[in-house]
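Q: Structure tokens for this one, please.
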Amino acid sequence: MTRVVVIDSGIDPHHPAVRGRAVVVPGARFGAALAEPEHDPDPLGHGTAVAATILRFGDERPVELHSLPVFGREPVCDFAVVLEALALALTLRPALINLSLGTTSLRHRQRLQRLVQQARSEGCRVIAPASYGGLPADPGNLAETDAVVGDPNVLPMLPELRRLGDRFVWFASPLPPPGTDGTRRLLARGDSLAVAAVTGCLLRSLPR
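A: Here is the predicted structure, written as tokens:
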């Protein structure tokens, strides 16, 4: 079973787009997520939307989704919290780490670069948006990551790897994939879903 870590707001294992499609493993909570009630695995809905997109694009292969929440009821947190979650994620030895988030600050770049270099050396791919608010964002701006740009002109299920400047970047649809509707609204759009789409396609390409 392939292991994927989702650093986000949590994953609701009972959502129809997730239930029965993966083994969801709730992990440690960080930052604002610590204040949320234990019985609510995803108070925001963002992480569940990301997970649903990964599974929709992942071609129904056996997958273990490890959820490391860093968001509470708002999709914001101190990026130092993300670094803590990323360090823990690497101890799980996943094949893929989905980070549908980023920072335009350079304050954490040195430590972040060490973590993504460690991930790549251990055969783990970190997938993250290339920019935020029109500005280059880390960790997507680091060479060791799979950077993603949301492009509505790209066909769903078919992300494209293109040269952009001196590196290759994924271009993927930012639209919700079909079949991810459920009883609970899923709060994610744009680059968040484009990143998840690339994670799902990379998952699909891994050997079973």
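A few notes: The two ends are 8 Å apart (CA to CA). The beta strands are 2-8, 23-26, 63-69, 96-98, 125-129, 131-132, 135-136, 146-150, 160-164, 167-172.
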